[in-house]
Amino acid sequence: MPGYVPKVDTDRLMASSMAGIAAIRAGLDEKRAFVKEAKFFCDRCKKQETSTSPLQACSRCRSVRYCSRECQVAHYKTTHKKSCANFEEPPLCRAFNHKVPLPGCSYPEMPILAQGVSEGMGAWVSTGGSIDCRLAVLPGGIKSNTGKDQPMSVAHALAMTPGMVDGKYLSLTILVQNRSPKAKPMIVVGLGIVAVTTPRGTPIILEGKDPGEPSRFLDYPHLNGRVLGLAKASAKLTHFNGKAIKDGETCPALKDPKTCAVLLNVGEYAMFTVEFRAGGPNITHDFQAFELLEHVIVPAIAYDPNISPNKSYAELLPAAADRDEVCEVRAKFDQRAVEAWYRDYKTKGETAYVTSHYGEARAKMVGMGNEALAEMLKAMMGMVQTGSSI
């Protein structure tokens, strides 16, 4: 019947949806608590740390831990000297858990999909997107787009309902560490981080280009004019030396919030979430975008305490590049690692993927949440058609 709107209790649906989201978060918090409480072991003698006898990390790489000076010296001479200098492992950090699978899961939370080293700086790249592998519809994540106390809109409901609208934004988690042998403090410019596509990927990425959307190309001969940056949407510092940086919280190492420029002394490391516009007619999921990327470039410059606080570090990059003073860490994607991480999704489907990577309970909760959001969207669309307010 034309104009018919089903009678739906939107308050009940909203409450149900929020309860489902809360349950998902609670389940994830419980799993992460396991990782947080998991004890480290001495990398030489395998002695487990205790609350009264914590292990000490290597001050340069922080990727190994020891119970005593004796173990540290012995392990360094036989094994760690080479691995520390070669950046074989990222810092041992619970926020960048690339080793320990959560309970009931077959994979750790943060797969290393790309890594690179240059002039004493190292970078490791992992996925930062949704657990359903779909590209985000809105940049900055759902929370920052909806607003904590703002009413739900149809656009936000579309963005939150998987499969309703194809996403465009690929989110990466990037850990960067300074292991400079000269003990040189470095500034990493978050907004300077870019992604470079493969030659095959450039035209596919550009198919999703919106009218008026800027596109940048590298003019370096060895890169053959491939897409640079994929129209970057945002960059954010999320952790410093393993500690989470909450919204509104100040971090002394963040020297320029506008460009997300972070000071790293030797041994220090930072985690960034960086987004790129990568979606298009043939790219709707994370793994489709990853398959078209060749590497990520993370720029860093030597820290100068005499630089004016009003000077943007992003503005300093071009001049520093002309003087050949920019350290560019090129983290090359390992397509075998990408294939291994997303194999369950591509061969068995979304439910199997979420189950193996995040647990059976969370897969069920995600399914329930998707159903509730879809029903809520249906009701909201009906109200819009009749001119009702939401």
UniProtKB/TrEMBL annotation:
Ranges of residues in domain MYND-type = 42-84
Going by the entry's taxonomy, the superkingdom of the source organism is recorded as: Eukaryota
**Any GO molecular function:** zinc ion binding
Q: A Pfam family in this protein?
A: zf-MYND
PROSITE patterns in UniProt: ZF_MYND_1, ZF_MYND_2
Q: Decide whether keyword ATP-binding is in the record.
A: no
* Keywords, in A-Z order: Metal-binding, Zinc, Zinc-finger
Which named protein is this? MYND-type domain-containing protein
Task: Name the source organism.
Answer: Mycena metata
